[in-house]
Every structure is written in structure tokens, then in C-alpha cells.
Amino acid sequence: MQTRELAVEGAFEFTPTVYPDSRGVFVSPFQEPAFEAAVGRKHTVAQTNHNRSAKGVVRGIHFTKTPPGQAKYVYCARGKALDVVVDLRLGSPTFGRWDVVEMDDVSFRAMYFPFGVGHAFIALEDNTVMSYVVTSFYNPAHELSINPLDADLALPWPKDLDYVLSERDTTAPSFKEAEAQGLLPQYADCLAL
């Protein structure tokens, strides 16, 4: 398993070894020893999630109120996507920065999203399946979002696609509006988790 630190403090990319043969492939996208060596702690699993998206679907920028918070380990089980991490943590040394990783069902590259950061992706192929290993149970009352098309963030969405967004994401506040409304988590609270 290869690891790489991303531009957002505490976020990592993981690239597992893929074992192909005449039957197909075997891969282990999440490996606790590699995760612990990179991040410095274990990843508690409370729930796993899957979503399937058509080409051009943008999901995010989603994050969880912190506390209670939620950390995520995400990989692409089918298809292809651009996955983005955005540092939303007030007081973080990388506050406001983002990084992007191309994920697909060839490399099975994965990303770790620490507590308090935002997550978004765009499906680059029909029937793209993203899989999540998360540290807390889904609670709609704790879920927040920022508009993924916020011009100030200027996320690297491909210009040649027609974007499909949920009403929740379309009407979500901008990054600056979320900060002004007191929605963003404190870096110290995120580190405490």
C-alpha cells in the first residue's frame, strides 16, 4: 500500500496493490496497518456506505457537525470519479485549501478525510460507485453542506460535463456564507476527536 499526504492537513491518499489474473482482480482498498502507519491511529468503523452516480453527478461538499464529527475513508468500487477534500476547519494550518484525487476501479485509490473537512466528488462515468468506511452512524441532523460550485473555492470540476446536483447541494451556502453563519468546525475540536 502506497500512501501520500494531501494538501489538506491530516488527509491522505492510499493506493493498494491490485492483483489481476484471468478471473479478474483482487484488491484490498483499506488496510489497517498502512492506515495506522500514515495517520497515527486506528480507523474506527461504525458504518459502511455506498452510492451509485450517473456521469456528471456532483455530490458534496458534505461535512458533519463537529462534535460529534465523522472521519471517512473513501474509494471508487466501480467507474471513475474526481474526489475532493476541502479544509473547513477554522484555525487549521491548511484552512480553505483543497486537493483532488482521481479514483477508479483500476487503481482502487482511496482517500482519508479527517474530522471536520469537506468531501465532494464528480462521477466521470455512468454507474460510478463510491464506497465509504465511516467512524459514526448517519444522522441527518448533523449533516451540513457547502455549494460545490462556489466560485471562490474554484474546485477543479471538468468543464465539458453537464453537472447534476441535488437540491440540497444547489441551495447550500458558499464557503464564506457557511463561515459567516458559524457552520464551520473548529480545528481544535476536530483534533480532540
From TrEMBL:
Transmembrane segments: none annotated. Pfam families: dTDP_sugar_isom. CDD domains: cupin_RmlC. Gene3D superfamilies: Jelly Rolls (2.60.120.10). Belongs to the dTDP-4-dehydrorhamnose 3,5-epimerase family. GO terms for cellular component: cytosol. It comes from Allokutzneria albata. PANTHER family: DTDP-6-DEOXY-D-GLUCOSE-3,5 EPIMERASE, THYMIDINE DIPHOSPHO-4-KETO-RHAMNOSE 3,5-EPIMERASE. This is Epimerase EvaD. GO terms for molecular function: dTDP-4-dehydrorhamnose 3,5-epimerase activity. The active site is at H62 (proton acceptor), Y132 (proton donor).
